[in-house]
Design goal:
single chain, alpha/beta, Rossmann fold, six-stranded mixed sheet, 12 helices, 10 strands, binds adenosine-5'-triphosphate
Length: about 250
């Protein structure tokens, strides 16, 4: 039977007088992937930052059945919540390995994880990072940088991993590879909250989906059901289903 890992109720967040999130309700079942799709500026990053505790918010956030909305960022990390931000925030003049070790250091200490054991686990998951362990992060390809950002978050052994637009700026083939990794994380027992503008790829990867528009959840459902919804197709999946001959020729 499924069990709820994360539950958000009536979550609100503002930037000054501008309300960015309006009473968001959302659930993530343990061992599953939920995605939040929506246009630019819908509030997707704000939602992840509010859950992580980077941004103040009102409402309730329950994680493993416990209210964590009053917890500091550090306490949330300690509980097993991790966020890979949209900007990836790597140390570009440091090696891949040092990024993993140093970037995760505080989190590691908080979670009392063993850095070298965890490094071996991350390298097992990302052989490409292992091959490039001495390479400077700033010289990695876009896909490798995203892998490093995910790997660094995994150094703290999270149970809930939140990913903010992991496909951003990546070629379709690399997006596929990154989302394959996200599916593997689920198989490894990590629950994932995936924010994406690439709705097609996100719905193919996730079990459940939410559509966020102007700071409100406007639709939700099993991913397959959302992917077949005419409104979602029209607004987010667009032409891709069967390209018109003229667009194919263009
Ligand atoms: P994108 O896909 O473009 O990253 P998003 O769905 O993640 O968009 P947010 O970045 O969460 O959207 O932004 C939600 C709203 O809050 C937008 O109107 C944005 O302009 C506003 N906003 C975001 N960050 C700030 C900030 N630091 N100060 C003021 N307004 C902000």
């Amino acid at each position: 039977m499924s069990e709820t890992l994360l539950e958000v109720e009536q979550l609100r967040a503002s930037y000054g007088k501008v309300q960015a999130l309006h009473d968001i309700n959302l659930k993530l079942e343990r061992g599953s992937i939920a995605t939040v799709i929506g246009p630019n500026g819908a509030g997707k990053s704000t939602l992840l930052n509010a859950i992580m505790g980077v941004l103040p918010a009102q409402g309730e956030i329950r994680y493993r059945g416990r209210a964590v909305d009053r917890y500091s960022l550090e306490q949330r990390v300690l509980e097993g919540i991790a966020l890979v931000p949209e900007r990836r925030e790597l140390f570009s003049t440091m090696s891949v390995e040092d990024n993993l070790l140093l970037g995760g250091f505080r989190r590691l200490r908080l979670r009392q994880a063993q850095p070298l054991d965890q490094l071996a686990t991350v390298f097992e998951m990302f052989p490409r990072l292992k091959e490039r362990r001495r390479q400077l992060a700033g010289t990695l390809s876009g896909g490798e940088r995203q892998m490093l950002a995910i790997g660094r978050a995994l150094m703290a052994k999270p149970e809930l991993l939140m990913l903010d637009e992991p496909s951003l700026g990546l070629a379709p083939r690399i997006v596929k590879e990154i989302l394959q990794i996200v599916s593997e994380l689920r198989s490894a027992g990590i629950s994932v909250l995936l924010v994406e503008q690439n709705a097609r790829a996100a719905l193919q990867t996730a079990d459940y989906g939410y559509v966020l528009e102007l700071g409100k959840v406007t639709m939700q459902g099993e991913s397959a059901q959302l992917a077949g919804d005419s409104q979602v197709i029209q607004a987010y999946l667009g032409f891709g289903k069967s390209p018109a001959p003229e667009s194919a020729a263009a």
